[in-house]
Amino acid sequence: MESGYGLFIDGRWSTPPKSKRFVTKNPATGETVGSFVSGTAEDAQRAVGSAARAFPGWRDTPAPRRGEILLEAARRMRERKSDLGRLVTCEMGKVIGEGLGDVQESIDFLEYIAGEGRRLAGETVPSELRSKFCLTVRQPKGVVACITPWNFPTAIPNWKIAAALVTGNTVVFKPASNTARCAAEVVKVYEQAGVPPGVLNFVTGPGGVVGNALVSDPRVRAVSFTGGVATGREVYALGAEGLKMVHLELGGKNPVLLMDDADLPLALDGVLFGAYGTSGQRCTATSRLIVHEKVYAAFLEMLVERLEEFAVGDPLDPATGMGPVASADQERKVLEYIALGKKEAKLRYGGKKLTGGLYDRGYFLEPTIFETKHGTRISKEEIFGPVLSVIRVGTYEEAVRVANDVDYGLSSSIYTSDVNRAFRAIHDLEAGITYINAPTIGAEVQLPFGGVKHTGNGGREAGSVAIEEFTEIKTVFVDFSSKLQKAQIDAE
Ligand code: UN1
User: Fold this and answer.
1) With the C-alpha atoms ordered 111, 155, 253, 234, is the resulting torsion angle positive or negative?
2) b/e code 305-317 from CB counts within 10 Å (16+ = b)
3) Measured between alpha carbons, how far is 130 from 127 in angstroms, rounded to an integer?
4) Which of 38, 44, 429, 451 ranks highest by number of CB atoms within 10 Å?
5) Distance between CA atoms of 449 and 440, rounded to whole angstroms?
6) Rounded to 5 degrees, what angle do the CA atoms 222, 24, 182 make?
7) Residue 152 near residue 139 (C-beta atoms within 8 A)
8) What pLDDT is attached to residue 491?
C-alpha cells in the first residue's frame, strides 16, 4: 500500500527539488506504508508565508461558512472511516477497533466544533456609565502551528486543526514523522471539503528542523503542541522568545485507585483496557494501579489470569487484544524501563519481547505487570508502553497521597461503591480528568481535555473551551452619549 506524498503549500501538493525523503513502516509487519518529504526550515517558512497570505481572506469568511466546510470534512471523514481506520492501524499499530475509534474521534470533534461557526460567543455586560455599551468579540490569532504526535494520528491533528480553522486562523500542520501518511490523508480530507488554498498547509520532516522553524517564525502567533515533556519544554522556551501563545499537552502517569469496596470484575475490565489499550501508548493510559491491601492479592490474581488469555498479535484481526508498540524507538525505550523495573521492583507478569512467527516482523511486547513500592522510577516516570505498576496501600488517604505524588496530572480514576468517597476523590485527585468507576482512557470530545502540573501549561483542548486556545478576546466599548464620559470618574 506504499505511496509517495509531497508537501501541501498554497493549496498544492508538491515536492521541492532535491528534497530528501523518509518512509513510514507498519510496526506489525515492517512493510513500508508511505514516503514523505523530509522538509527543511525553508519549506516551513514557505508554508508560513502561504498561511500568512491566506489569513485575511479566511478571517473575513463568515464563521458559519467556515463551520460548514468542517461539517463537510466530517462527512467525508465518515465516508472514509474504514479505510482511514485501517491506515491508522497499519501505520501506528493500534488494534483495528481503536484505529476506527481514532477516526471516529476525528468525526465527532469536527461535528462538534463546526457548531462554533454559529456560536463563537463573546459577552455583553453593563457599563458603569450611561449610554455606553460593553462587549467582547473573539478574533483569530493569525497563523498557528499545529505539531502533533503519532499515538492518535488522526484525532489529535483534528482537535487542533478544526478548532484553529473554525475560529478563523490559518494553519501550518507538522505531524509526527512515523504517522505521516495518516496526517497527509487528514489534510486531503480538508482539501476536498473545500478549505481554500493556503488556509491549511502541511510540512513533514524532523521536529528539530521543521518544528523549530515554525515555532521561531515571527509570523506564527500561536503553537499547539502535543508530545513528550522534554520536547514540550523546548517548544515552550522557543515560543517564549517570540512571546507567543504556546499550548502544551504532554505526559501522564495516570492512576487507578482500586478501593476495597469496588466492583472487582468491573474494575478488571477497566484496568485491562486502560493499561493495555493502544499498547499503553496513550497520554491517558493507566500506568499505575493503586490497590487497597484488602483486595490486593485477589485482584492481582484476577488480572494475571486474564492476561494469560490476552491475545497479542495482528492488530488488523478483531480478536487481537493488543498490537505492537509503534516503532523500534518505542520498543527500545519500553524494554529499558522493563530492565530497570526488574532491578527496582518485582516482575509479576510479562516483561519480554515476543518472538517467533509474526512477532519477528514487528515490535511486539508482552503486557507487563510490576509489583512495586511507590517511589521507584517505573512508578513515577512515564513509560508510554504496556507496563503497569501495581502499588499496595492501606487506606484511601494513602492512595490519594501516592496518586498525587508524581510530576504529571492528566487522567485519574477511582473504583469504589461509596458515593461519598467518589466525590471526595473528584476533590482530592490532582488531575485534569477524573473518572468514577471507569478507566482512565476514553475522554469524549465535547468536554475539555488536558491536565495539571507537567502535563501541560494550563490550557485545555476540545470541549467548549477549545476555541480559547485559538482566539484573542477584544474588549469593545461603544459610547453613544455624544459626550466625553470618564470611567471611574463620572459614574454617579
Ligand atoms: C492522548 O493520548 O493524547 O481519552 C489522547 C482518550 C482519548 C484521547 C487520548 N480520547 O484516551
Assistant:
1) negative
2) ebbeebebbbbbe
3) 7
4) 44
5) 12
6) 55
7) no
8) 81
- Rounded to an integer, what distance in angstroms lies between the CA atom of residue 310 and that of residue 367? 9
Which DSSP state fits 208? I
* Domains with residue ranges and CATH for the chain: 7-250+456-475 (3.40.605.10), 254-436 (3.40.309.10)
Assign 275 to helix, strand or coil.
Answer: helix
Q: How far is the CA of 284 from the centre of ligand 1 (A)?
A: 6
**CA–CA dist 224, 209 (Å, integer):** 17
Q: Residue 131 C-alpha to ligand 1 middle, in angstroms? A: 49
Question: What is the Å distance from ligand 1's center to 479 Cα?
Answer: 47
Q: What Å distances lie between residue 310 and 272, 276, 295, 299, 320, CA to CA?
A: 10, 10, 22, 16, 8
Mutate to test the pocket of ligand 1, among 100, 103, 152 (most ligand atoms within 8 A of CB): 152
| Ligand 1 pocket member 442 (CB < 6 A) | yes
Residue nearest to atom 3 of ligand 1 (CA): 283
Asked if residue 210 has its Cβ within 6 Å of ligand 1, the reply is: no
Distance from C-alpha of 428 to C-alpha of 107, rounded to nearest angstrom: 34
Strand partners, 32: 25
For residue 106 and ligand 1, the question of a CB distance below 6 A is answered with no
Task: Please report the beta strands in 183-300, taking only residues with DSSP state E, as ranges in sequence order.
Answer: 200-202, 220-226, 245-249, 254-258, 286-292
Predicted confidence (pLDDT) per residue in 35-91, tens digit: 999 999 999 999 999 999 999 999 999 999 999 999 999 999 999 999 999 999 999
Per this entry, what is the length of the chain? 492
Pocket test for ligand 1, best of 224, 449, 455, 461 (most atoms within 8 A of CB): 449
CB 146 within 8 A of CB 174: yes
Q: What's the pLDDT score for residue 26?
A: 98
Alpha carbon of 80 to ligand 1 centroid (Å): 21
Kindly list the distances between the CA atom of residue 57 and the CA atoms of 66, 67, 159, 189, 197, in Å, as whole numbers in the listed order: 11, 15, 23, 21, 10
Does residue 247 line the site of ligand 1, with CB under 6 A? no
Q: If residue 132 lies in a helix (H) or strand (E), which one and from where to where?
A: strand 132-140
Kindly list the catalytic residues.
249, 283
pTM value is: 0.97
Phi, psi (degrees; rounded to nearest 5) at 87:
-65, -40
Q: What does the alpha-carbon distance between residue 9 and residue 15 come to, in Å, rounded to a whole number?
A: 10
Cβ–ligand 1 distance for 443 under 6 Å, the answer: yes
pLDDT at 1: 45
The minimum-distance atom of ligand 1 relative to the CA of 445 is: 10
Task: Tell me the average pLDDT across 96-109.
Answer: 98
